[in-house]
Structure formats: C-alpha cells, structure tokens
C-alpha cells in the first residue's frame, strides 16, 4: 500500500535522535514550558527569520490566540477563505468573532485579492478587523496584493502557515509577511510533531508579549491573571524536544518533496485532461500536498484505492457549505472557484520518505486509469 501521508516513516527516519530526546525529557522531571520549549522557540524563530516565536498546543490554538492578541473578539468579523481546513474558521468562532469567506484563485487555490477588495468595497463594516490568508498546499498566497488591500482598510493580516513550513515568496519566508503568523505541528505537516502542537510567530514585540500571557491564563506572573481571554495552550516539553530534532532536517525534506512533485509533473503532463499544480514564479512551494484536478475525480480516487494507492481530498466540502458555517451572511459574495475546486481536486501521496520509484508508480497508474 502506498500511503497518502506517513508520519511514522518520518519518525523512523529520525528514530535514534527522537528516542534519545524523549528519554532526556522524561528523565528531566520538567514537562511543561521548560528548557526544550524555550530552545525550540528560539531555533524556530531563527529558522523562519522572525524575532519571536511562541509555542502553543495546536495550530488551531495558534490562530485563536493570534486573533485574541490582535484584540479580536465578540461582534468582530475576520475575512478568510472557505477552501481550507475547518480549523481556520473554527479559531475565528472561538474568539466570538465571525468569518467572512472570499473566493480563491483557481490556479493557486489561495485567497483571490480581487475578491478581498470586492468584499471590503461592497460589505462596509467597521467591525471587520483582520484577514487570514491561507498558504495552502505549501504555496504562499498573493501577499503583496493582500497586504496592500488590508492596510488600506487598517486590518491585521494573520498568516495561516499550517501547510507551508519553509515556503517562500520573493525569497522571503512565509510567516514573516503579515503582522502575525500561525503554524501547526500536526504529525502530517512538513514539520510535524508526534502529537499536536503549534506556534505563533511575529516581529511585533508587544504582540509576542501578549501571546505569552494569553497561552497561559493571561498570567504575567504565576497564578496572577492580568488580562482576560487567556487559555491553557502550552506546547509541551516532549513535543518541543521532538521538533528540535526534526527542525534541522526540514529544508532537506522539503527538497525531497519538490523532487517527488517534479516526478509527478513530468509524467502526468502527458495527459492534458489532468490539471497540474500551478506554482507562481515568485513562489517556492514546499508541497505539503501535490493536488491535481480531474473531472473523473471520484472514479480515479476509487480506482487508485483498489490498486493500493491512497489519495485524499483536501477538502471535499467547502466550509461555507458545511452546516456549522452555512449562514448566507458569512458568504456575501459568490464562491464559484471554491465550489468548483471541491469537485475535482485530489491529493496524491506526498511525504519525504516516498521514493521516486513509488511516485513514478502512482503517476503511471493514474495515466493508465484515465486512458
């Protein structure tokens, strides 16, 4: 069976180092917000080229806390996309705010700047406080245009980098472009823990300080809560130690993903009915997913499964069409590109340990099925 993702393979690739790191933490007697978290925060900030990184319990918590640090809460609105993991919208709702969905670019699946501009023009509200562009599938959103539009309306820009560890736009890493950025360390991510974890990055010292308080009950000092809205969201020592082992390998593993993507592209380009990923010239994708589009998506998905090749659909139902977010007020403008993508997208196997031979097998099998 060729898996769509395989976090166990990544553990096995670094097993000796990870086991030693875990053993060291277990023997230390310090399991919450200790030396491992502090060192990982420093190392991650350096790697991502930002001044501050604050470790939290998950990528969803990272988004929620970033919003809270920006003063966003009850009665506010935050603009984002519907073509993303539901966590993006769920984090907004957890603050008491509401998401407003805009459409995506049909080529990159990221936020369409023109749609953002149209919404801000037609849906005038002083309670729109922020924009969350999602760097989906490993490629950066069109940040220059998004930032220009957002700044015209005095909006915070919070980057959702959950799928883009190490991706760059104009040679600048994602997570350094907006006011604040959020990463997930879910096991299947490009930089994945062996459990949940997340981090918030920023170059704003005041936001970083506030985030440090908010992740632990609003404490400035132990047991004394000075600000409301704080929660218990702390990256634990074990996960931080594991991530410290994995972080130095991130660049090499992203290169492996690019080689796999190149293999898929070279073979699948022989069939013009397959729409391949489009990477803009200014972007360097880290291919969290390699997503193709085909009209016979469901049939292909089933046929590949029968032949021992696992694929996934990221994401089968746009958020605005899910019961929890189906209020028409959350989608003031039509989202045709989002809805079209959901019917055709298919994520092929993609993880660093996937061999080129396996990638070739997947691609040739797809050509055979679609012949």
CATH class category of the largest domain: Alpha Beta
Strand content: 5-15%
Number of domains: 2
**Would you give the CATH topology of the largest domain?**
Aspartate Aminotransferase, domain 2
Instruction: Enumerate the strands of the largest sheet in spatial order, edge to edge or round the barrel.
Output: 1-9-8-5-4-2-3
What's the order of the H and E elements?
HHHEHEHEHEHEEEEEHEEHHEEHHEH
Major sheet, described briefly?
Answer: 7 strands, mixed
* Superfamily (CATH H level) name of the largest domain: Type I PLP-dependent aspartate aminotransferase-like (Major domain)
What is the CATH architecture term of the largest domain?
3-Layer(aba) Sandwich
Radius of gyration: 20 Å
Number of strands: 14
Walkthrough of the structure:
The chain has 371 residues and is of the alpha/beta class. It folds into two domains: 7-248, Type I PLP-dependent aspartate aminotransferase-like (Major domain) (Aspartate Aminotransferase, domain 2), CATH 3.40.640; 250-370, Aspartate Aminotransferase, domain 1. Helix content is 40%, strand content 14%. It has 13 helices and 14 strands. The protein has helices spanning 7-13, 15-28, 35-48, 59-69, 87-94, 113-122, 143-152, 205-214, 237-246, 250-268, 297-306, 336-344, 356-370, and strands at 52-56, 77-81, 98-102, 128-131, 156-160, 168-169, 172-173, 180-184, 198-202, 219-221, 224-225, 283-284, 290-293, 345-348. The protein has a seven-stranded mixed β-sheet, with helices on both faces. It has a three-stranded antiparallel β-sheet with strand order 7-6-12, with no helix packed on it. A hairpin with a 2-residue loop joins strand 6 (168-169) and strand 7. Helix 2 runs antiparallel to helix 9. The chain is globular. The protein starts with 6 loop residues before the first helix and ends with a helix. The model has no long low-confidence stretch (mean pLDDT 96).
């Amino acid at each position: 069976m060729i898996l769509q993702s395989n976090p166990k393979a990544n553990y096995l690739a670094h097993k000796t180092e990870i086991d030693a790191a875990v053993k060291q933490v277990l023997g230390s007697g310090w399991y919450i917000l200790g030396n491992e978290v502090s060192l990982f925060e420093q190392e991650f900030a350096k790697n991502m080229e930002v001044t501050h990184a604050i470790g939290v319990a998950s990528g969803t918590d990272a988004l929620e806390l970033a919003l809270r640090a920006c003063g966003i809460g009850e009665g506010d609105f935050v603009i984002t996309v519907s073509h993303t993991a539901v966590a993006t919208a769920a984090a907004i709702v957890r603050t008491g705010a509401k998401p407003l969905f805009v459409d995506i670019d049909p080529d990159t699946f990221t936020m369409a700047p023109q749609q953002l501009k149209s919404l801000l023009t037609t849906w005038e509200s002083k309670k729109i406080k922020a924009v969350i562009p999602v760097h989906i599938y490993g490629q950066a959103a069109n940040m220059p245009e998004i930032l220009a539009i957002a700044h015209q309306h005095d909006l915070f820009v919070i980057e959702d980098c959950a799928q883009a560890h190490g991706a760059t736009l104009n040679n600048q890493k994602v997570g350094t472009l907006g006011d604040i950025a959020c990463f997930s360390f879910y096991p299947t991510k490009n930089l994945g823990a062996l459990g949940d974890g997340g981090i918030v990055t920023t170059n704003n010292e005041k936001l970083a300080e506030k985030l440090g308080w908010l992740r632990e009950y609003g404490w400035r000092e132990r047991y004394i809560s000075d600000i409301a809205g704080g929660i218990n969201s702390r990256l634990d020592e074990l996960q931080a130690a594991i991530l410290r082992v994995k972080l130095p390998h991130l660049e090499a593993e992203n290169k492996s993903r690019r080689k796999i993507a190149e293999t898929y592209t070279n073979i699948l380009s022989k069939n013009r009915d397959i729409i391949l990923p489009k990477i803009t010239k200014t972007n360097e994708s880290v291919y969290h997913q390699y997503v193709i589009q085909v009209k016979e998506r469901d049939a292909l998905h089933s046929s590949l499964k029968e032949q021992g090749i696992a694929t996934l659909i990221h994401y089968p139902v746009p958020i605005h069409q899910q019961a929890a977010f189906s209020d028409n007020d959350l989608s003031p403008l039509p989202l045709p590109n989002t809805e079209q993508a959901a019917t055709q997208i298919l994520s092929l196997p993609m993880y660093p340990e996937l061999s080129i031979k396996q990638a070739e097998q997947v691609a040739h099998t797809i050509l055979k099925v679609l012949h």
